[in-house]
Amino acid sequence: MRIPYTGPLPPPIILPRNANTASGAISALTRFLSAPPSPRLPASSSSNGRTVLLTGAGISVASGLADYRGTAGTYTLNKTYRPIYYNEFVSNHEARKRYWARSFLGWTNLHRARPNAAHRAVRKLGEQGFIGEVITQNVDSFHPLAHPELPTLELHGYLRSLACIHCGNHLPRKEFQQSLSRLNPTWAAFLADMLETGALDSEHPDERRAKGLKSNPDGDVDVPDAPYTTFRYPACPGCLANPPILADGSQSSVRLDADGAWSPQSTAGVLKPAVVMFGESITPNVKLAAERAIDQASSILVVGSSLATYSAWRLVKRAKERNMPIGILNLGGVRGEESFYAETPADNDGSLGVRCSQSVDKILPSVVQNLETLAAAPAKADIPARQDNYA
Q1: What is the per-residue pLDDT across 72-90, written as a single tens digit (0 to 9) for each?
Q2: What is the rounded CA–CA span in Å between residue 73 and residue 214?
Q3: What's the 3-state SS for 161-218?
């Protein structure tokens, strides 16, 4: 289940010690990615000899998107922020109107944003054979866009389409956005004005706040005191054409208002973003695929994530239980990180574990360059194998 961790995060543990600088972090990550599989992996392991990457919102900050816990993150600057939960969305018409109004305003910039240097570095790491698979918590679709040849598991789904909670029908977000504009001409005019004046050009919370807006992750823009109750949204076209049978065996009905918007008199036809909302469970097939990706890798590298959601944290815990070397590149603290490195030897040079607190878009491209240089001059490489030096 996707449940956010709201407790305080520990200060980052820096491993090895020289990883407290950008050059030290680059060197340590180079050693981590290029070291052979650890001899401490389970004897029954079917390791592919590659690293599995687990990414979070921090990798997309350089694309202009807001994150949760970074220095300018929503939880950092807005202590009262609370994302909508699945049960609230499903059961409350007014909550859905508020959600879709804010999403309507935020979608354009999210749709315009593109992968950054860190995503392109991931593609290179896949091409070089260091990364075997990516598991991302992000819903921005940047990973499959940046490296379609490198497998990506979108742990929490994606915002590029919607899914009906009644019939399972999927609908492209672009088509849904057009329907929202048609049903809400006043809101559409407001959005057009904000786009024309550049009010949405920045995802930085301070800049948005100066313009009377509050920006949050996943394309959410809050306009204080906005009349959200006036917002309307369309019904699922699949349910409209063929109303499904409900769980109790009764026939559902989908009703529209005079302009074609979903009516609260309906018993089906509710669309939600194709993401795993907070409080919603990850599907069993995605859960199993994530576990399989961990089990088939020889090490795990966390990039741009504080592991504040249990669905991500448990994957690193699984890697730890399998004695896999763990690397973390994230600005600020990470949930439970002290337990991940409790047994890492003091003389570790990075091949047995890395923890650095640096900007992802600055570090990963340099790591790629380092690895390319080493590959071009293997005789000069000074990357020792992972030793079994645990106490």
Answers
A1: 544 544 556 678 999 999 9
A2: 12
A3: EEEECCCCCEEEHHHHHHHHHHHCHHHHHHHHHHHHHCCCCCCCHHHHHHCCCEEECC
Tell me whether residue 167 is exposed, middle or buried, using C-beta atoms within 10 angstroms of its C-beta: 0 to 12, 13 to 18, 19 or more. Answer: buried
Instruction: Give the active site residue among 119, 143, 147, 156.
Output: 156
How far is it, in rounded angstroms, from Cα 274 to Cα 282? 11
Contact call for residues 138 and 303 (beta carbons, < 8 A): no
Question: Measured between alpha carbons, how far is 88 from 93 in angstroms, rounded to an integer?
Answer: 9
Asked, as a colleague might, if the bond just before 16 is cis with ω within 30 of 0, I would say: yes
Tell me how far apart the alpha carbons of residues 35 and 9 are, in angstroms, rounded to a whole number: 30
The predicted-structure confidence for 35-58, as pLDDT tens digits, reads as follows: 999 888 887 666 778 999 999 999
| Parallel, antiparallel or unpaired: strands 271-275 and 157-164 | antiparallel
3-state secondary structure of 262: strand
Given CA atoms 240, 244, 245, 247 in this order, what sign does their dihedral have? negative
| Cα separation values, 310 from 4, 39, 281, Å | 7, 28, 11
Q: Could you confirm whether 156 is annotated as catalytic?
A: yes
Q: What is the pTM of this model?
A: 0.89
